[in-house]
Amino acid sequence: MDAATVSTAVADENAPLAGGMLWLAAIILAAANFIAVLNMTIANVAVPNIAGSLGATVSQGTWVITSYAVGEAITVPLTGWLSARYGAVRVFVGAMVLFGFFSLVSGLANSLGLLVAARIFQGFSGGPLMPLSQTLLMRIFPKEKTAAAIGLWSMTTLIAPVLGPILGGYFCDEYSWSWIFYINLPIAFTGGFFAWQLLKRYSEPLVRNPIDRVGLALLIVWVATLQLMLDEGKDLDWFASTKIVTLAIIAAIAFAAFIIWELYEEHPVVDLKVFRHRGFSACVLTISLAFAAFFGVSVLTPLWLQNFMGYTATQAGLATAGTGLAAFFIAPLVAQMATRVDARKLVFGGVIWLGLDTLWRTVANTDMTFWNIAVPLVFLGFGLPFFFIPTTGLALASVEEREMDSAAGLMNFLRTLSGAFATSCVTTVWANQITRNHAELVGLTDSDQGVATMLTASGAPGEAVTQVIDYMITGQSVMLATNQLMWAIGIAFFIAASVIWIAPRPSRVVDPSAGGH
Questions:
Q1: pTM of the predicted model, to two decimals?
Q2: The Major facilitator superfamily (MFS) profile domain covers which part of the protein (predicted)?
Q3: Whole-angstrom Cα Rg for the chain
């Protein structure tokens, strides 16, 4: 579809979108959310390639991930304020174009410093795309199709983190790391152009409130220091490091000051008053807990497969791809059910399913085949839409229409932050459990020297015997640690499922025509 067709179709500035134009706008909005979420994970497997290409250490290369997370975390909660001051459509289109520009700069970067700077600004641009794609979808869809809009948005949110490592591994193996950024360009630039053509009719009167400079400064300080603490803590032995302690103190003080200031500021940069709605608070807590558990599974699985099961990045990505595919196919059904069934029942059942599936994975062993690993992950995908789609709808139905942009921003921010917490916790606990299990197994393994005697009799030198036994112990230590974490994550899902019952039954459905009023 060319620009002339779109321009003709949108000639009537006041007419709502319908038919093909409606779905074209929906696809553009969903694609914007997709690339913003995708960039949270697509660089994870590319860090060694990037570091080697730019002459940096792998530890320094992780700043490529951290910088994007910091930038995104700062701007996501600002979405409501940005939308009120500059207009939701303008902010969305501007963010999309800037996201494409800084993706281009990232791909062309010839030094780590330039790449990190570009990723920070890419994160700044990507932050508003997630909540605004959600609220704009709900604004353009007729009331009876709101569930379909939420389902479309939810599919991209759930599938993108799973596809990230797959695409990242593929581009690094077959082309170069620059392509993990170039992939954003056609979506960002083309989508930005058509989004303005299609959505400018939904522009609203602006609210020129004074800029809350103090609140903005406090937000930047506490979010940036917290994100740095979470990203570097696992490498610096957490609170044994003076740097981590300092970051924690700064984050805690700035966070407390931010909360107090925003609650009493007449024109706050982040509207915390949306948490007065019990339904919204309960849904956000459920989303944060369940998404943290899901992200824990998503982080742990490829780490285990690549580091200890001999899988390449691409193979690990294919093993986990079933989760996203299953979620993609089941989401439309869930979107329809969400209009007829109490959302709390769907969420409870979906999260319980995720917990049971995770417990299924606690019996894993080192002899598992590809399909032994992939099948439980497919079943995990069946439960994701039941959790995410109705929870999102119920959360936004619990706030006033004029609060939707702020509510969506805060919901996405806390979901993203919970993923960062989960990543740090899972990687730290997993490493500690491997060490603990290894120490325990050393004292139990081959106590009668039978294995050592057999290896020695086969002609293996003494040093090789020790290495073989240690390799066996390490493999079992990792497997035990992985299963132990799956137990903990499964229980976390059960806790998250119970929280949804704090939310009251919604007294209204979301009115898409008032998504940002």
A1: 0.78
A2: 25-508
A3: 24
